[in-house]
Every structure is written in structure tokens, then in C-alpha cells.
Predict the 3D structure of the following.
Amino acid sequence: MTTTTTPPKKGKATVRHHIKVLVIDDDPAVCKTVGLLLEDHGFRPKTYTDAQQALEHADEESYQIAIVDLRMPTMDGVEVVERLKNIDERMCCIVMTAYPELSSATETMRRGTCDYIPKPFEKEQLLEAVDRACRNLGLIYRDEHDLNQLIGHRIRAERLRLNLTLRQLSDRTDLTTSQLSQVELGKNAASIWALARISNSLGLRLARLLEGL
């Protein structure tokens, strides 16, 4: 199951160096192939053939995207996806499998998978799935305007997660609702001072808000 999104704008190089991808597959050859492919296209991949080690690592270092094999000898991919989502519910998980079945696809989607790729896959299929996940998460940017939109998207998502209105956030930050709206829409670049007040009001460290950018 996939979603249709608008492709990135052309003309400027897409920035991906801040996007970390966790790759989990018991086949070392697949890990190597996927890892090199992602590196070649500007991502920061980390590959694991052992699912338990990957989960332990994900608990210590944050990843925006995970690519997980569905059938592994030590741990089922469905369980891996569920545990990754428990570590970070915002993580986008892409499942790949040589045994595509409706029941397994439905179950992984129920557990939080955002995309499903059958094996063997073309390189373009994998890259399109990862880029689609990046766009859905608002991770891809090409210039300062896009970066401002990414920061604004993160602030808005966290505010909504906390069920805060713009007025309530305004009261916490001493910024006007108009200023906050402009920041969330990415129309104005917020100063470090303003971002620090916003992140503190959302219960986040500023470094967390800007992580990976």
C-alpha cells in the first residue's frame, strides 16, 4: 500500500545527508546492496543482519526511517516494526519481503508500516519508497525556505501531539499567534531565541527539535 505525493521540485539538489535510515535484513548481501545504494543517494544508512542488535541500536540513536525484511530467522519483521514504533512512533517503517501476501501486508500496516516492497525489487523502487517516506515526514529540503518549512512542520506536529492551540503556545512563549503561525508555515525564519522558547514550551530540548538538520 502506498500513498501518492507530489515529487520534489526540480532545479536544486535535494538535501538528504541529515536523513538516517536503519536497514535490517538477515542477508548480508541485501544489507550491503541497500546500504551502498542509500549512501550513493546521500542518505546515512546503518545496516544490521541481527534484528535484536538493530533494536538495541535504535533505542540509543534515533532514525527517521527503517527498512525491515519481513521474514528473518531470529525475529519476525512484524514484531521488529512494532518494537521500532514503540521506540519512536514517528519512525517510518518500510517492509520488504520475497513472500508478498495480503495477510502479512495487512498485519504490518496495522503495526505501523508506511510502505511495502516485494523482493526482488528494482533500485528505483526502493529509492522511490524511501523518498516517499521522506516527503511524508517532511524531511527533504533544497534551500533555506524548505528548511524553514521542515522546522515549522516539526513544531506544528509536536504542538498538535500535545493538543495545544496556537493561543496556548503563544501564552507559553510570549510570541504572538501570528508569529507562531508564520513559523509553522515556514514563511519566516525563527531566531534561535524564538526556537529555544518554542522547544522549551513543547517540552523539547532545542537540539532535539533541530536534530539531523
In short: Confidence is low (pLDDT under 50) at residues 1-11. The radius of gyration is 18 Å. Residues 144-161 form the longest helix (18 residues). The domain at 144-209 is CATH 1.10.260.40 (434 Repressor (Amino-terminal Domain)).
